[in-house]
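quick one before i forget lol
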Amino acid sequence: MIKEVILVAVAIIIFTWMSCNNSSTVNTNATSAGADTTMNTRDTATNQHISNSDSTTTNADWLLIPGVSAGQTRLNENADSVYQRLGTPDGGDAAMMKAIAIWYAHHDTTDNSVAIYTSKNTDTPVVARILQIRVTSPAFKTEEGIHTSSSLQDIKNHFDVMRTQQYQYAGVHYAVYDSRQGIAFEMNPDSVCTAIVIHKAGTINEGTYLKFRTTDKFINR
């Protein structure tokens, strides 16, 4: 009788130990899965706002409004809100109260990108405000349907632009056509748009203190 009681007690102890161990494993896996989901959600959101990798996004997310905004990013917006939305930038630079931040789709420097140029005020608290927004994805479009890959003639059909700058990158010459409406277009040698910059309306974009395009060494201005 005593032997049977001991065997039953041992069986109960073993069963209890196995149950606790399995529960711990499940909780650990669940925590890990939750962390992965959070990271994947941030990456997915970033890619959606750079290259339109998800068909669930709305037209408003990709609308270019000269002098106002590029998708969800607006001129004069606190840059902190963009960092919260897109996460840590893939690159950038900062000096003299100015800063550049750039995000690449899938963190691939050969893929489409969104970049912002900011300037900090001298008030308290100090806030970095967005002065320019640069996009390369053709998913971003103006109300007229102009986007990267549009021809120069298509652009001229809708915007009053003038050639203001040119630069060279990797042996290729690019020209910048700007409009006082608050939008500029970077064109390749085939007169095809490769990037669009949203800036303050009423002025011609005079460039940035830091590198903002593929290079900051303009041939002329």
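fyi Residues 22-42, 53-57, 215-221 have pLDDT under 50 and may be disordered.
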